[in-house]
Amino acid sequence: MKIQTILGISLIGATLFAGSANADVRDIRIGVDVPYEPMEFRTPDGELTGFDIELGNALCAEIGIQCEWVVQGWDGIIPGLMARKYDAIMSSMTINDDRRKQVLFSDPYFTPPSAWFAPAASDIEMPYPQTLEGMTIGVQRGTLQDNYVTDNFGDVADVNRYATADDMVLDMDAGRLDIVFLDFPVGKATLIDSKAGDYKVIGEMITEPKEYFGDGFGIAFRQRDEELANAFNEALATLKDNGTYQEIYSDYFEAK
Amino acid sequence: MIDLHGYGPRLFEGAMITIQLGVLSLILSVILGLLTASAKMSRSWILHRIGTLYTTIIRGVPDLVLMMLLFFGGQIGINQVTDWLYYQFDIDIFINVNEFVAGVLTIGLIFGAYMGETFRGAFMAVDNGQIEAGRAYGMTNWLMFRRIRFPLMMRHALPGLSNNWMVLLKTTALVSVIGLSDMVRVAAEASKATREPFTFMLIVAAIYLLIASVSEWGFAKLQKRYDVGFGESN
Amino acid sequence: MESLTQWIQGLLADNTIFTLQTLSYYGEGLVTTVQLVFLSLVIGLVLAVPLAIGRGSKHRWIQLPIFFYCYVFRGTPLLVQLYLIYYGVVFIDGIQDTWLWVILEKPFVPALIAFTLNTAAYTTEIFRGAIKSTARGEIEAARAYGMSWWLMMRRIVLPSAFRRALPAYGNEVIFMLHASAIASVVTIMDLTGAARFVYARFYAPFDAFLFVAAIYLCLTFSILYLFRYLEKRLLVHLKPSGQ
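The joint structure predicted for all components is written out below.
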């Protein structure tokens, strides 16, 4: 702790940008890690889109503020919030106790299960430590799936950790991975829907144990921005009542 | 013609970021290098120690590790300070170390150590007689630095400087790992999306070679200028 | 052994980050880093010797390709070379069905190839400089003895060139150690990979990266001292004598 404070003080001299902002509910910036289809990704011409982006914009409109999206890699996304690079994170972030120590979460706005995905030809039936022995498992670094796989399969299998879900899919296509573990909607969009017949879901949807899988996706704020979090919670309740939420939801998660 | 799948403009922006990053880090590293060289040559043992500690640590740790330490750690460190200010004094400041700033700081810091060695050797190579002559003319220290020591030193420092710049240029690629959209990151994204790694990576390699060749030419010109008065054979 | 484990456990009782599990990540990372760097240096060295000789050849069609290889691999970032090889091998048609895929499937071998090609290019240039600076008199003496070209290379030119190349090669070894940190980008759990894992899991950048920086510092110093020792032993004839 002491070392961190000293380093912190010495680093303050090394920063270039300084300005000020007040603590009321105001126009904000939201951090997001792309691509994570269909939750958040870019169109080929660089526009951000996805479930999080559309719901986030709807929430901001409901509150009556302007929101700007800031793209940030996953492994720096919480520090970025602390460093005020943005004021909220809306990037498929699962609410769990570890993160609650760092940030303040909104009410969950979406609760996806995690699932295992493997090539269609794979003969794995159920992913247990015995059945995955000696295999190569892909996860995204620092996600709850990473923690779950590391603790339960790390001793028997190779775990490849990727900076983005994209990198993981690429290595899956290349045949470098036997099986991957990720949020079900993301896996469904990137592995099942866009490559008909190449991949399949193995076993059940996984939501337990809670110590890993937490309570769904939440918007993260700095601990002290309670007002802001409350504003988003109210807006979320309104959108769920008036059907806007359902509209966006069916755009992304229901068969067309 | 090569099909860039619409990534052309972003690749160009990425190349611009690479160049900006390189040039800004170079400037920072030259400043740090001059300071380090002075510290190491100074009579004060504290300055000497600090200079030595700096060059030793920097040259002992991988660039990527230093970059991550500064980028990820710098944010949390600053966050702790600003939070403390907020809770203690209700002062709310917004301080932002983005990837670009972290990149410039780290690369500048790393190459400052190497530049320090280059400059130290070059300063020591300056003929003492020249300095004595300056003193005899009654020049102040600053004037002597500007008119005599710096230009003469540069002649000896340029080969090392040019070498450091070439290495620095390639080091900029590492910022793509911490998330800055330099040309390597754009090319990596493009190769993943289009499944054509050869196209994009080879283009990026060619751009690096082009920048290197242009700078080599530029340094040769500079060397000619600083060599004035020393003859061909020297 | 058991008391040692207990001692470490006692030492670590107060912190939540450096558990035996995370320390074992760092330990495995250390092994991977050392393997990767050592193997690429050894193979690179073996490649560099003939390349350096060829680089000085009078035949254009030997000299030019080697020059071009060195120019490209020294002029572009290692990260680009790593991406090219790691992602590139996948797109060679039908490679997944050959025996080659067994070794290319894991990230270790593609990274090893990239590192080896990179260090071989730098080492070639180092040796070329050393070979070029062989004293003319030595070569003339060898010729006068009627040595064949090969014998002269083996007995006269290369041994003294190796010695002269030693300081520069020491720098290259340290450079390779530091460059190897990018292996973590292609999922290899080397030292840096272990640090990134610990950072992502505990959000503790200072603990994760300062610890790994200290390990790298120790490795760098070990290499430095090894080369100082070698220089002392092998370059003794270049020191002023008669004292």
